[in-house]
């Protein structure tokens, strides 16, 4: 028999009444009733209430013990009186009368309580993460994460995928985010890089003749933190398949996501067949390639309205003549909303750095009019045209933004979500997946005005290779795709370019000559030169999937030991300074410039 317990702290029921048992766990909380002392004993599985009388020799010890001390308790299971039953916990109909007590570990005064789910400063939570993880909600989040990963692994094996592990120490890549570099002791002056993703290796697995691969892969990127992105490392379901087209990848991932989300959430999935939205359409309709399809609001371009002679909104007209765009969001049947609602949205837009959002409501008396601060600037005919373009009706309201394409898109993308939240338009009990497809192969770098890859440099361009117009590379689309759920990008993927000569041409457009490509991607290019199958894949983010399933807005709530926003591990005090002898051994001198 295990000397620490006969049962765990969620096992005992009224069928166990009269039994002598042993429990071990943490002192969760205690309630002193004078002659009786009640304690909640907690372990990984749950909570059991225990009671001790003041004539018990362990009463005084237990009375003085600090919360989170670790105890071994032996005693008899007794029935709780009816009015003291707690049906919110599984052991709520019984309690344990304590006969013997052993303190296995004493706790110091807690820097933050474990009992309860109050909010605490993030730095405090991360410094004492081992305490934070004892809290019920956090504990459940991490268990959910483990179960999700186990489920995914099981499903992938059922689908005929083989699990392989790719190297952690690899070469630096000129594309993507910043690498984490690792100096090589045996090769002085040279560095490994931690993989931003197993991109090249998983393609090499396909070239090696394996048909379907996956792994729960750790990835490392030296990026700034966001709510949905860790600053150092993250995990993804990395998968790749041979002899496939885009729809083959979609079919596997859609089925997996539907089973996964239905298994771990009671929320409904809005579409079993995920909508396919071209990148350009997503940008025009939603202002982003990460649209939340639970939100019904759509962005419409009404720039042409301001070329009409019967529109007297001179500020916007002058800007339009200078090349500005005017776009709008229609809110349905909002004429009864108070003026304060519209002013609040306008004020919010200014707080985001925009010049505000003009607005008016479409109403009808003897004729159609625009009611609101700028409604008077539009004739009845111009309002009818707006209604036609935006599919608006009498009683609807319109928010307007004028500026450069990027400025307008940026503020209206945010405004869609802000307005929808204010009007309670988003169904919080649903998941809305979609595919964003047809990404441009290249884009213009705004800082350098040079052409660069917009997504994944190893992607296959769309169209017949012989007919690709390399002189107009910004018009080339790629077989690249993202999967988005509730406005969160879960992953990116692509059908890969498996033709070396085509890869040289594409990299040349982005400024990499043949020698650079051979040097930076020698393993990949060399392998593709010996017969490579058409292949493709994707890599859904584990952290973001669990974040959605746990209904959390911050990825750190579903990560065991995350860093803070400054990429610091406050618990382990990393990054830290390195001993001079260690630095000497790997041939590195640190010469930090003094701050002025």
Description:
The chain is globular, with a radius of gyration of 30 Å. It is built from 16 helices and 24 strands. Helices cover 27% and strands 23% of the residues. Helix 4 packs across helix 15 (542-549). It has helices at residues 59-64, 122-127, 129-132, 136-158, 199-207, 246-264, 279-286, 314-321, 339-351, 380-390, 405-422, 500-509, 514-520, 522-528, 542-549, 580-585; strands at 20-32, 36-42, 47-53, 70-79, 94-105, 162-163, 181-183, 191-193, 212-220, 233-242, 268-269, 276-278, 299-301, 325-331, 358-364, 368-371, 397-403, 430-431, 433-437, 442-444, 451-453, 480-485, 488-495, 535-538. With 596 residues, the chain is an alpha+beta fold. A hairpin with a 6-residue loop joins strand 20 and strand 21. The strands form 6 sheets. An 8-stranded mixed beta sheet has the order 6-9-10-24-23-22-19-12, with helices on both faces. The chain has a 5-stranded mixed barrel with strand order 1-2-3-5-4.
Percent strand equals 15-25%
Structural class call reads alpha+beta
Radius of gyration: 30 Å
Summarize model confidence as the mean pLDDT.
94
- The helix fraction, in percent, is 25-40%
Alpha carbon gap, first and last residue: 67 Å
Taken from the alpha-carbon principal axes, the silhouette is: globular
Number of strands: 24
Largest sheet: 8 strands, mixed
What's the total helix number?
16
**Biggest sheet, spatial arrangement of strands:** 6-9-10-24-23-22-19-12
- Characterize the quaternary organization of these chains: single chain
Poorly predicted runs: none
């Amino acid at each position: 028999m295990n000397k620490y317990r006969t049962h765990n702290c969620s096992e005992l029921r009224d069928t166990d009444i009269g039994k002598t048992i042993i429990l071990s766990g943490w002192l969760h909380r205690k309630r002193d009733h004078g002659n009786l002392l009640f304690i909640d004993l907690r372990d990984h599985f749950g909570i059991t209430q225990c009671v001790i009388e003041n004539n018990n020799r362990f009463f005084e010890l237990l009375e003085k013990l600090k919360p989170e001390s670790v105890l071994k308790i032996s005693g008899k299971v007794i029935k709780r009186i009816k009015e003291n039953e707690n049906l919110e916990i599984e052991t709520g109909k019984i309690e344990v009368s304590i006969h013997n007590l052993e303190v296995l570990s004493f706790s110091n005064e807690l820097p933050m309580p474990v009992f309860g789910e109050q909010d605490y400063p993030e730095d405090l939570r991360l410094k004492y993460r081992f305490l934070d993880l004892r809290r019920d909600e956090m504990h459940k989040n991490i268990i959910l994460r483990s179960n999700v990963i186990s489920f995914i692994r099981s499903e992938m094996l059922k689908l005929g995928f083989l699990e392989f592990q790719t190297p952690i120490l690899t070469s630096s890549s000129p594309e993507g985010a910043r690498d984490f570099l690792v100096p090589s002791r045996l090769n002085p002056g040279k560095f490994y890089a931690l993989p931003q993703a197993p991109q090249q290796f998983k393609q090499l697995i396909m070239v090696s003749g394996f048909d379907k691969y996956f792994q729960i892969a750790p990835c490392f990127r030296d990026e700034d933190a966001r709510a949905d992105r860790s600053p150092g490392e993250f995990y993804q379901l990395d998968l790749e398949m041979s002899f496939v087209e885009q729809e083959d990848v979609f079919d596997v991932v859609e089925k997996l996501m539907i089973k996964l989300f239905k298994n771990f959430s009671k929320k409904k999935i809005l579409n079993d067949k995920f909508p396919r939205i071209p990148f350009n359409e997503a940008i025009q309709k939603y202002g982003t390639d990460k649209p939340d399809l639970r939100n019904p609001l759509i962005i419409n371009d009404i720039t042409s309205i301001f070329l009409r002679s019967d529109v007297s909104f001179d500020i916007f007209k002058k800007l339009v003549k200078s090349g500005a765009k005017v776009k709008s969001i229609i809110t349905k049947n909002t004429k009864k909303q108070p003026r304060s609602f519209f002013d609040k949205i306008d004020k919010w837009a200014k707080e985001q750095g925009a010049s505000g959002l003009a607005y008016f409501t479409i109403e009808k008396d003897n004729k159609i009019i625009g009611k609101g601060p700028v409604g008077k600037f539009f004739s009845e005919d111009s309002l009818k045209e707006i209604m036609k373009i935006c599919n608006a009706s009498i009683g609807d309201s319109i928010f307007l933004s004028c500026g450069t394409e990027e400025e307008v898109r940026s503020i209206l993308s945010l405004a869609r979500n802000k307005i929808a939240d204010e009007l309670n338009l988003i169904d919080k009990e649903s998941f809305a997946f979609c595919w964003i497809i047809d990404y441009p192969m290249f884009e213009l770098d705004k800082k350098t005005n040079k052409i660069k890859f917009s997504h994944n440099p190893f992607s296959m361009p769309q169209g017949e290779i012989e007919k690709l117009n390399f002189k107009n590379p910004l018009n080339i689309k790629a077989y690249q795709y993202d999967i988005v759920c509730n406005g969160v990008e879960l992953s990116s993927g692509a059908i890969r370019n498996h033709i070396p000569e085509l890869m040289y041409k594409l990299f040349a457009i982005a400024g990499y000559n043949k020698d650079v490509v051979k040097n930076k991607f020698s393993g990949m290019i060399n392998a593709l030169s010996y017969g490579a199958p058409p292949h493709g894949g994707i890599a859904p983010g584990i952290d973001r999937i669990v974040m959605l399933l746990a209904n959390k807005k911050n990825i750190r709530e579903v990560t065991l030991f995350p860093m803070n926003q400054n990429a610091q591990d406050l618990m382990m005090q990393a990054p830290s300074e390195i001993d001079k002898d260690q630095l000497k051994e790997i041939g590195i001198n640190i010469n930090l410039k003094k701050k002025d």
